[in-house]
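User: Last request for today: this protein with adenosine-5'-diphosphate, please.
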Amino acid sequence: AEAQLRQSQKMEAVGQLTGGIAHDFNNLLQGITGNLEIVERRVAQGRTEELDRFVTAAATAANRAASLTHRLLAFSRRQPLDPKPVEVNRLIGSIEDLLRRTIGERIALDLHLDADLWPTRCDPNQLESAILNLAINARDAMEGGGRLTIETGNVTRENSAFVCIRVGDTGTGMDADTIARAFEPFFTTKPIGRGTGLGLSMIYGFAKQSEGTATIESAPGEGTSVRLYLPRHDGPMDEAGEAPAAAPVPLS
Ligand code: ADP
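Assistant: Here's the final one, the structure of the complex with adenosine-5'-diphosphate:
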């Protein structure tokens, strides 16, 4: 019975996914065909001046449609996790330039990286895209500019050791209803073609699958902090290219 329930929940999720795609894609297509029809009519009437506006609008909708399909494809064929030991500070350092370019000049970037940070174990590519996604959400919440803070630290919760990554902004913040729904797939408050509502749900899934978790703290008008908790890795570092901080655990 439990397996059946899970199966029907899955089918419901697939139904929601398909409905969401169809709806957003249709809106974008209307933005393309509607503008192209105007272009056709004006060309037929010999009114070829002032066509730029409609062509640009059609191209914008086409770009958003392409980006929507790209993100949905990435979601549907989510790669299996490939967990390995990760030095989070170093990973953040490696995307610092990309982060600055992503948030633009009106948003300041503050890094508070704990020099004694434990290594963690997770899929580094997924962690990188999680942090980038959080930075994009922060940027979208700070249209007038602001401050993006990325902070790392060691945390022990309920006898388990975690590396905590906080991504904080000084943006619009979220009300209680938005916080409650933010991790749901397809929940978005952004206009069509801008948000898929998949970012935070993917981040939450990544954290859970990595045997950690994610939390949101937010207040309207004050800003938002999303925290990722990823498990401490103990044992030798492989592949990360760094000597183990402690002696390798002896094989018993
Ligand atoms: P999307 O960004 O595509 O809407 P997400 O799952 O990343 O999807 O976010 C869901 C919703 O949560 C957003 O539409 C927005 O309302 C809210 N949200 C996420 N991050 C922030 C943030 N940093 N500040 C304010 N609201 C946010």
